[in-house]
Specification:
The complex is a heterodimer of chains A (139) and B (158). With 139 residues, chain A is mostly helical. Chain A has six helices and two strands; from the N terminus they run H-H-H-H-E-E-H-H. Helix content of chain A is 56%, strand content 3%.
Chain lengths: 139, 158
């Protein structure tokens, strides 16, 4: 039973992945991809939490930077790169409709920035929580 | 005879002046065309100004592209297709190695050319919170995003 669920999720994830890798997506589409990934990673998956995502976004995880170091504690406004000061357009989809419209882009930036902040890759749970937090801002 | 000498001196002076301006042309933006590449602009211009390839020699760009996961303390890795395109673009448009030191440097701000070009910038300007770093070209070079670094478009924050 659980295996069938996992297989179904994997197939769904693969299908979604193929679709999104090709082109445009919505934040909700990307959240579904992370949900499928998270379910596959843990049968105890209990959903995403914006509150957990906000907390994750704002702490430094033992290093020098948090997500908020560049994207600010108010992702509805523009941020600045913590080192170069380059302006960064808002991260919240409500403030910037380009955000989370490409799975490839989202994965690229999660890979880089999770390495920077946490010194490791973010899990699907963590990505989904952060996305849940960002999606409910300004709504 | 005297007139010939004078003419020779004038020609020599004009040639030297011309050479000086030619060297500074790399910064004037007038002499050097702005070369661009979509992958380079998108990937290399997302965290800082996309530094014009002519500012470093090809060997420096190769070294940078070989270690993008440790790019001055951050992960700047790029997918293989984009990396190949960017690498080719940088190598094709790189500047000449200006000295043995410059050939090895990975920091534009440490090249002798950069140091010379910015020798008149007061120390307090670098400490200004809106500047913070010599890597932050756009703080003073208002057309940096368009690849123009000429003196006429510089406003140093006070």
């Amino acid at each position: 039973m659980v295996e069938m669920q996992a297989v179904r999720s994997a197939v769904a994830a693969a299908a979604l992945l193929a679709a999104f890798a090709a082109g445009a997506a919505t934040p909700a589409d990307i959240a579904k991809t992370y949900e499928a990934d998270a379910r596959q990673a843990s049968p105890q998956f209990g959903g995403f939490s914006a509150a957990r995502g906000k907390a994750f976004f704002e702490v430094t995880h033992g290093g020098d930077w948090s997500c908020a170091s560049c994207h600010t504690r108010d992702p509805l406004v523009a941020g600045r790169h913590a080192k170069t000061s380059k302006p960064i357009r808002p991260l919240a989809p409500a403030a910037n409709p380009e955000r989370f419209t490409s799975l490839a882009q989202a994965e690229k930036w999660f890979k880089r920035n999770c390495n920077d902040v946490l010194n490791r890759a973010c899990t699907a749970q963590e990505k989904g929580d952060v996305l849940a937090y960002l999606m409910q801002l300004g709504r | 005879m005297l007139l010939d000498r004078t003419r020779q001196s004038l020609v020599a002076a004009a040639l030297s002046a011309g050479l000086l301006f030619a060297r500074d042309g790399i910064a004037s933006g007038r002499a050097a065309a702005f070369v661009a590449n979509p992958a380079w602009q998108a990937e290399c211009g997302s965290c800082h100004v996309a530094y014009p390839p002519r500012l470093l020699p090809a060997a420096s760009w190769r070294a940078l592209m070989d270690d993008l996961e440790r790019h001055f303390g951050t992960d700047a890795s790029v997918d293989p297709a984009a990396a190949a395109a960017i690498r080719a673009f940088l190598e094709a448009n790189a500047g000449p190695p200006r000295s043995a030191d410059d050939a090895a440097t990975l920091r534009i701000t440490q090249t002798r050319w950069f140091v010379r070009e910015h020798r008149d910038v007061p120390a307090r300007a670098w400490r200004n919170p809106s500047v913070r770093s010599a890597a932050n070209c756009a703080a003073c070079h208002r057309s940096a995003e368009a690849g123009r670094f000429g003196e006429h478009d510089v406003r140093i924050p006070q």
